């Protein structure tokens, strides 16, 4: 069979709805681009799906009571379990220390007899002020922002952190003067 | 002798039956060629080489560590599915369900099998890697399969890590707290890692404690209810699924790369 006998009708020579090679490849690339875009969008959304909008965690900012509720020289451990902070009052005022160990993030315990925070994971020790003095912890515990609300109660804001080694404990919000 | 002939004819009859032929198209394997067809025609067996060189079954050479790893994976899948019938991944029940599994549920050893099997699998995977390295089996044409193997080892460790949280005791919680804290330091996608502070619009950090890779892993800012559920799903469904895909590729590539490497 030679190709000369191919019936005319089988070769689409009609102008209008016919698609030449270039046009076909053009539409093919549009199709692939649309497919890639849709797939990429879907995977982006899939990653976004993993980041929840609402957290069922205790609030980051909370009231802990009036300054008179805190005894001078004592470490208050009432807020440790729920909010992960220690509240300490000294002669000059009140500060809130994060209970997250600066070594690997465990929670140390306040030992009243030994007057230190001791981490059960790897043995880091911190003074009452939060300054590290033993074990692998590389830096002191962090302070959170502390201030007075209009009703006279103390507000602790955990979204703000103050690091001693950066001189941030000098910042006003890191310490509530009484 | 006559009895043997009779048996063979029975086998022949079975081999000629429609049921047998519909399952194994090549009939009863009688010679090398037919045995090869039987292997190649089976979706599970065809991942394997159709013929093995003599050295490939030498235990002194392979240590059988790859095979043992796969065997342990199968054991872990079966015992894991059984454990899922009793275990509830919530803060309220997780710990007591594990106690229940070991002390009250019939065959409490099932949980121990899963636990020790997991430890053993980490060990066999490492030893398999050591063997492959020491025999130079990572060299071309097997370099791609070495890469797949490294991925499988990472997946094994991640399976072990996610399973570690599920008993929800102090050890589990703090081990995972420490473990996931490493993700904080990941470049760019961990909020304490290098480059994270560069990803900011003006003063607003895009990568912070509530948006980094650790947050996605934990489903929150610290190890809690959301983390337990997330690790449960990763441990029981997502990661084993990925592991199975890579295992299929791994076994298939052994065959395609010319079988188990020979002694030099």
The poorly predicted ranges of chain B are: none
Order of helix and strand elements from N to C terminus of chain B: HHHHHHHHHEEHH
**SS-based class of chain B:** mainly alpha
Give the end-to-end Cα distance of chain A, rounded to a whole number of Å: 105 Å
Total number of distinct structural domains of chain B: 2
Shape-level CATH architecture of the largest domain in chain B: Up-down Bundle
Biggest pleated-sheet summary of chain A: 7 strands, antiparallel
Number of helices of chain B: 11
What does this structure look like?
The complex is a heterodimer of chains A (178) and B (264). Chain A is of the alpha+beta class and 178 residues long. Chain A has helices spanning 21-49, 80-83; strands spanning 61-65, 75-76, 85-89, 93-98, 109-111, 116-118, 125-126, 132-134, 143-148, 154-162, 176-177. In chain A, strands 1, 2, 3, 4, 9, 10 and 11 form a seven-stranded antiparallel beta sheet that branches. Chain B is mostly helical and 264 residues long. Chain B has eleven helices and two strands; from the N terminus they run αααααααααββαα. Chain B has helices at residues 2-16, 18-23, 32-40, 59-62, 65-84, 94-103, 109-134, 143-165, 170-181, 213-218, 225-256, and strands spanning 200-201, 204-205. Chain B has a two-stranded antiparallel sheet with strand order 1-2. Chain A binds chain B through residues 47, 50-52, 55-57, 84, 104-106, 121, and chain B through 174, 177-178, 181, 210-211, 215-216, 219-222, 224-226.
């Amino acid at each position: 069979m030679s190709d000369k006998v191919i019936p005319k009708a089988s070769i689409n020579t009609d102008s209008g709805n016919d698609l030449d090679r270039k046009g076909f490849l053009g539409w093919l690339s549009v199709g692939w681009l649309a497919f890639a875009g849709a797939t990429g969008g879907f995977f982006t959304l899939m990653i976004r799906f993993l980041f929840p909008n609402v957290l069922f965690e205790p609030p980051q900012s909370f009231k802990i009571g009036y300054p008179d509720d805190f005894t001078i020289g004592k470490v208050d451990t009432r807020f440790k379990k729920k909010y992960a902070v220690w509240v300490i009052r000294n002669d000059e005022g009140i500060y809130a220390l994060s209970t997250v160990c600066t070594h690997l993030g465990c929670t140390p315990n306040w030992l009243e007899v030994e007057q230190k925070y001791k981490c059960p994971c790897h043995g880091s020790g911190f003074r009452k002020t939060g300054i590290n003095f033993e074990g692998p912890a590389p830096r002191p515990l962090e302070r959170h922002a502390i201030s007075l609300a209009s009703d006279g109660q103390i507000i602790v804001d955990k979204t703000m952190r103050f690091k001693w080694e950066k001189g941030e404990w000098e910042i006003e919000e890191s310490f509530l003067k009484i | 002798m006559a009895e043997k002939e009779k048996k063979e004819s029975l086998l022949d009859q079975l081999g000629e039956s429609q049921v047998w032929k519909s399952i194994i198209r090549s009939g009863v394997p009688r010679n090398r060629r037919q045995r090869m067809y039987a292997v190649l025609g089976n979706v599970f067996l065809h991942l394997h080489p159709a013929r093995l060189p003599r050295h490939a079954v030498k235990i002194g050479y392979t240590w059988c560590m790859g095979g043992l790893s796969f065997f342990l994976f199968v054991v872990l899948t079966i015992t894991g599915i059984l454990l899922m019938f009793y275990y509830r991944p919530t803060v309220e029940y997780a710990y007591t369900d594990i106690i229940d599994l070991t002390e009250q549920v019939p065959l409490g050893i099932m949980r121990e099998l899963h636990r020790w099997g997991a430890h053993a699998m980490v060990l066999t995977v490492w030893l398999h890697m050591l063997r492959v390295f020491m025999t130079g089996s990572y060299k071309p044409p097997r370099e791609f399969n070495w890469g797949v193997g490294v991925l499988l080892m990472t997946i094994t460790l991640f399976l072990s890590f996610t399973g570690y949280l599920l008993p929800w005791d102090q050890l589990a919680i703090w081990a995972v707290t420490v473990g996931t804290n490493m993700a904080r330091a990941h470049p760019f996608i961990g909020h304490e890692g290098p480059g994270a502070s560069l990803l900011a619009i003006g003063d607003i950090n895009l990568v912070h404690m509530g948006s980094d890779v650790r947050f996605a892993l934990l489903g929150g800012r610290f190890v809690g209810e959301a983390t337990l559920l997330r690790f449960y799903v990763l441990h029981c469904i997502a990661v084993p699924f990925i592991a199975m895909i890579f295992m299929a590729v791994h076994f298939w590539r052994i065959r395609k790369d010319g079988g188990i490497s020979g002694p030099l």
